[in-house]
Amino acid sequence: MAQWEIKNKTFLITGGASGLGAEYAKAFLSEGAKNIVILDINEELGNATTEKLNNQYGQKVSFIKCDCSKEDDITKAFKAVVAQVKQIDVIVNNAGIMNDNPKIWRLASDVNWQGVVSFTMKGLEHMRKDEGGAGGTIINIASTAALTAFECLPVYKGSKTAVLNFSQCIAIPPFFENTGIRVLTFCPGGTDTPLVQNLDVKTYDPKMGAEFAKMVENQDGVNIQKVESCVTAMVEMFKKAGPRTIWVSTNDKPVQDMTELIDGHFKAIENAVEAI
Ligand SMILES: NC(=O)C1=CN([C@@H]2O[C@H](COP(=O)(O)OP(=O)(O)OC[C@H]3O[C@@H](n4cnc5c(N)ncnc54)[C@H](O)[C@@H]3O)[C@@H](O)[C@H]2O)C=CC1
Ligand SMILES: CCCCCC(=O)/C=C/C=C\C/C=C\C/C=C\CCCC(=O)O
Question: Is the pTM of this model over 0.95?
Answer without folding.
Answer: yes
